[in-house]
């Protein structure tokens, strides 16, 4: 794999290790984070440069990766005098790993093209552990030629990577992913409550079922901790509600009704009101139990 000049914007629980993999792979890596101390810490831990603005981080780079919070966060680092687009050289590629609306992906593709650049929407799945272990699933939207240029670079932190179609299709695939997670957690929550009420040993149940048709990542990684009332880790429901909002809006756009997704979203809203907004999505079990 050839080495590139790259930048990574956003060093949260996902971006920090992802940027680290780029540096360890030999890419000259510049980073920006809203909390400057985090960028400086990263630069000390890995071989790279902490920059004061997204524009400075993007300057001279072949590819700029972004992984921040939501649509507005993305816009705040892409646009403006100090934004990524202001620093990108002609022909450079912008890759957004943030989970956003499909509309934003299309918007960014147009803005990048007008700036003389290409764009790939590339939301990820696998959580903090996936980022730290370099085994993320990456769902991409954009042009085949552009995807082929960035795929070998992203491969350093990916286990699975696919181009789903034009810009926005990566984000739509991530919506499908989040709907599946919500549905699985709903079923898993109800199943665990039955297992507990009937005196089954949860660890034994998981060890038995995870190899069969009921097996899932959620069962293997969350069932035991759910039964132990442990939820202080993983993907927060504040972020999941943002994602489910995209799902429901997209479904409305195409004339679909998603009753289970609506139910899960409403239960997460209740949990937020109860102070569980920063807990892992598996805390859904508390809402399911509450309504028994």
UniProtKB/TrEMBL annotation:
Q: Where is the 3-hydroxyisobutyrate dehydrogenase-like NAD-binding domain?
A: 168-287
Q: What is this protein called?
A: 2-hydroxy-3-oxopropionate reductase
Q: Which PANTHER family match?
A: 3-HYDROXYISOBUTYRATE DEHYDROGENASE-LIKE 1, MITOCHONDRIAL-RELATED
Organism whose genome encodes this protein: Vibrio galatheae
Q: Which GO terms describe its molecular function?
A: NAD binding; NADP binding; oxidoreductase activity
- What lineage does UniProt assign to this protein's organism? Bacteria, Pseudomonadati, Pseudomonadota, Gammaproteobacteria, Vibrionales
User: Gene3D superfamilies, alphabetically?
Assistant: N-(1-d-carboxylethyl)-l-norvaline Dehydrogenase, domain 2, NAD(P)-binding Rossmann-like Domain
Domain 6-phosphogluconate dehydrogenase NADP-binding as annotated: residue spans: 5-164
Residues annotated as the enzyme's active site: 174
* Keyword tags: NAD, Oxidoreductase
Q: Does the keyword Oxidoreductase apply?
A: yes
Q: Name one Pfam family in it.
A: NAD_binding_2
């Amino acid at each position: 794999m050839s080495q590139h000049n790259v930048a990574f914007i956003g060093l949260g629980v996902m971006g920090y290790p992802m940027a680290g993999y780029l540096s360890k792979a030999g890419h000259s890596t510049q980073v920006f984070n809203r909390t400057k101390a985090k960028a400086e810490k990263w630069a000390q831990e890995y071989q790279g440069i902490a920059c004061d603005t997204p524009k400075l981080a993007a300057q001279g780079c072949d590819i700029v990766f972004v992984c921040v919070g939501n649509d507005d966060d993305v816009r705040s680092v892409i646009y403006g005098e100090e934004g990524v687009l202001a620093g990108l050289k002609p022909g450079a590629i912008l890759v957004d790993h943030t989970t956003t609306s499909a509309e934003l992906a299309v918007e960014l593709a147009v803005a990048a093209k007008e700036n003389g650049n290409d764009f790939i929407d590339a939301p990820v799945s696998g959580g903090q552990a996936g980022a730290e272990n370099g085994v993320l699933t990456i769902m991409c939207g954009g042009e085949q030629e552009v995807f082929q240029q960035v795929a070998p670079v992203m491969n350093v932190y990916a286990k699975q990577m696919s181009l789903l179609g034009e810009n926005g299709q990566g984000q739509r695939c991530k919506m499908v992913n989040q709907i599946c997670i919500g549905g699985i957690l709903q079923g898993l929550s109800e199943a665990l409550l039955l297992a507990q009420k009937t005196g089954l040993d949860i660890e034994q149940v998981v060890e038995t079922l995870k190899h069969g048709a009921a097996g899932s990542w959620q069962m293997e990684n969350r069932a035991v901790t759910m039964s132990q009332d442990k939820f202080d880790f993983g993907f927060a429901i504040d972020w999941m509600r943002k994602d489910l909002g995209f799902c429901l809006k997209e479904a409305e756009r195409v004339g679909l009704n998603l009753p289970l997704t609506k139910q899960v979203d409403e239960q997460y809203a209740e949990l937020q009101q109860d102070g569980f907004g920063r807990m892992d999505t598996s805390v859904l079990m508390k809402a399911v139990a509450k309504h028994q």
